[in-house]
Give the backbone structure.
Amino acid sequence: MTQLPTFTKKKLGLVIDLDTCVGCHACVISCKEWNTTSYGAPLSDVDAYGADPDGSFLNRVHTFEAKQEGCSAQTVHFPKSCLHCEDAPCVTVCPTGASYKREEDGIVLVNEDHCIGCGLCAWACPYGAREMDKVEGVMKKCTLCVDRIYNENIPEEDRVPSCVKTCPAGARHFGDFADPTSNVSILSAARGGMDLMPAIGTKPVNKYLPPRPKADITPELDVLGPLMAQDETAGGFIGWLDRTLERL
Amino acid sequence: MHPAPSVIIFTSLSGLGFGLIFWMGFGLPAVNGMIVVAVFATLGLGLATIGLLASTFHLGNPQRAWRAFSQWKTSWLSREGILAVLTLITFFIYACLWAFLDIRIAALGWLSSALAAGTIFTTSMIYAQMKTVPRWNVSSTLLLFLIYSAAGGALLAAQMQAAGALLAILAVVQVLAWKQGDYAFAKAGHTIETATGLSALGKVRLLEKPHSGTNYLMKEMIHIVGRKHSAKLRVISIALMAIIPATLILALDAGHIIAALAIVLHVAGLFAARWLFFAEAEHVVGLYYDQR
């Protein structure tokens, strides 16, 4: 069913903290591992040890540099996976009904038995969240680890998406955005959680927390300046030498 | 966007086929006799069918293609599939009666024409709906596909006066569509800063790609090589597709040889134009890779 639900009881999603992410790619690897061994077809690799390796991933970490005129640059590690949009264009374009958004929790999934691998949903997604699997010919995407979060066979503390569980920096948070008192709602409200490319109108559920303002970023950073200034008023032998040489 | 040969062939040939079906629905060419009608009808049905079959070549699981008829409520691709099949069935019945029993049911013909036009419209909407590809997400995409089919169909239906006029209109619409497309990405306002939400931090650039190699997204959505010669290809495609054939058939007495030459040139130009339609289209996901 490619008609989007008008209302979902829960809005499960992630908060990704761009201030905290250290760009270690552990979430990428744990995602690949979990989703290769569980939901749907394995995430295949083609020519993995050859000259032109290629493979399906549901989560990727880009690294950007942001720089203001006259200021030093700062690095932002940027994990990117499905945002489980409320108005998901990938779902409505699907001709077979393989793509759907769940009414109970808002998770966007692909029924791989119905997917023909036409690739139109990947075209419709602005975020590059969907990748075609070369071996199976079906579309792969983040399932929000639907097979972990409700899984009663694993310890309760593990019932979160694999990327969240594995993040060593605590940069990823999982919860229900429909509940204003949930961890993710509070965090997002407190830190100004933002949507990516809001002009496209996808209404993403996942929110990104912008990096906190950094004290040493705002003024123009002159690396040698402070050292030079210190030398001018240096005391002791260096100071005497400096003053003596100055007089010559 | 990656210009997949199967999609270029599909959209070009099926557009021509449905264009011919559109004209035949109005009883044009006004021919009689089983063989002549059957030849034209087979050409229309054949082109449309080859195009539809070619479209299944890029599917990961073509054996499930029948499922694509199910989601007509939201999916333009599904609507296109349904309308295409309805057009082929309606036109097949209409053409058989016309060719073999010499009964041309006008109402059935009009229905075929309407369905053919509807199919072309749904094809154009598959591209025009994509907010992620600003060059396609403009009004001229709809007009362009309808005129490609009307002009190409007129040429195949030997409606030389109409074809000449429509090809001239096509040349104008194509140039306007290129112009509109050239500004579409900037007009949509998507930048690496809106994609990352980091505009408050200043100018953003990609410092490091998420992976050292390539991936599906980059192969499918980022196609820079194809645009290298786009200026030359635009001139070549519009000359072959519209200007030369229009000049030939309007200036010279349109015999069979001139008509055949005009068709061959038109189809060659059409393939080039369709190649550019994909190769020049920039997907917003390229912003995350600092490449468009």
